[in-house]
Amino acid sequence: MTISRRGLLFGLPLFLAGCQSMQNQQAMYGDLPDEPHPLKKVPLEKIKPELRRQEVAYETSHAPGTVVVDTPARRLYYIMGNGQAMRYGIGVGRAGLALAGNAYVGRKAEWPTWTPTANMIRRDPEKNLKYAGGLPGGPNNPLGARAMYLYRGGNDTMFRIHGTNQPWSIGQAMSSGCVRMMNHDVIDLYARVAVGSKVVVMQA
To answer: Which parts of the sequence belong to the L,D-TPase catalytic domain (predicted)?
Structure first.
């Protein structure tokens, strides 16, 4: 066997692993025609690889089922146990508009209605006042395909983990304080998270 052929064979498993990984991601982010509002596949070439959903090693003292939001890193982790977590890229709130500390998922909704908070209406009445009565779920709704509502002590904090119709905003700090995810990712997280699940939001 020649050296060049031996090198080719040694490199083949890595090449196949890379192809398999890309195939898996294409499947994870493919068309979702059975949604109430069908979703088209995500153009992966426009999403940085590190912002795509993947299972990673993650050592933590938090119990399985906990959601950890690492705001400075623009990452969200769903703790799976045994040193593993599902990692998602996220968009976060602008400085001064972010939640910090512990909360829990008080309720969940599919294709939720979006209603701007009083603070959002005050900050930008021209944009938000017309939606004071609520905007029904759909492709133009800023909460996207799913929402998980964060509570403390039985009270709604007005912060949400939700989808977005602006996938290019993932990795950015530009929202009104909520945690936004690609619709495909928030659908995946929604299926994993139960009402009552602990959420830990880390700030810088």
So the answer is: 65-202
